[in-house]
Write a structure and sequence with these properties.
mainly alpha; 6 helices
């Protein structure tokens, strides 16, 4: 395969690997609930190293994808601002994902079991990385919706809905998490909402990678 095709395939691999390992590990981790707990909490407790590796490798794969995306967009007859902002947003996402893997979150919502719930500087860094990740996953589909449409208007609609669902699910997850921490709603579906945001965001990355591998999908409107 050509180098650019390999780079784009890395994005497809990231879109498959990261959510699959989160869901598989979460479904089999003692004391962990996919409905209740956030994906980041898998980076703590038993088998925490697995999600550290998952997030770091996923970040590296997304970095390769951002490079391939930049190369593809620059080939357009009139590359616009999307050729700059699309790769920048994806780079922000991959860096945030890697940081979220390296810097673990704080214990919360009863996980890991028998660990006191505290707020640390590392937890705040992790939270900021998560905020950047979800913001980038939401913004990228909006930025590239029309630029990658080819002749298919449906791609524009799908991309915009994907971006909207990512940000809506992530915000709802944050609200549910706070309500649960305050005891106002227990158990709140914070984990379900966060996992949904990740699934929608990475599904779009898979779709974009597959679309970019086909001819005549990049162009100005």
């Amino acid at each position: 395969m050509r180098p650019t095709t390999i780079l784009l395939t890395c994005g497809i691999a990231a879109g498959l690997l990261v959510p699959a390992l989160i869901l598989t590990d979460g479904a089999t981790r003692p004391g962990y609930s996919l409905l209740h707990h956030g994906a980041s909490q898998l980076g703590t407790g038993q088998r925490g190293w697995l999600q550290t590796v998952n997030f770091v490798i996923g970040g590296l794969l997304l970095l390769a994808f951002a490079t391939g995306l930049r190369r593809m967009l620059c080939r357009a007859p009139q590359p616009g601002r999307e050729a700059i902002w699309g790769p920048i947003l994806l780079t922000a996402a991959d860096l945030a994902l890697a940081v979220a893997g390296i810097v673990p979150t704080d214990p919360a919502l009863g996980y890991p079991p028998d660990r006191p719930e505290v707020i640390t500087a590392a937890g705040r860094v992790h939270g900021l990385a998560g905020l950047v990740l979800f913001a980038a996953l939401a913004a990228t589909p909006f930025v590239l919706a029309r630029h990658l449409r080819g002749s298919n208007q449906g791609w524009v609609t799908y991309s915009r809905w994907s971006g909207a669902l990512v940000i809506a699910s992530a915000l709802a997850a944050g609200i549910a998490f706070r309500l649960d921490m305050q005891g106002a709603l227990r158990p709140a579906p914070a984990g379900l909402l966060e996992h949904a945001a990740l699934l929608v965001g990475f599904a779009w990355i898979i779709a974009a990678g597959l679309r970019l591998r086909r001819p005549n999908t990049v162009g100005e409107v």
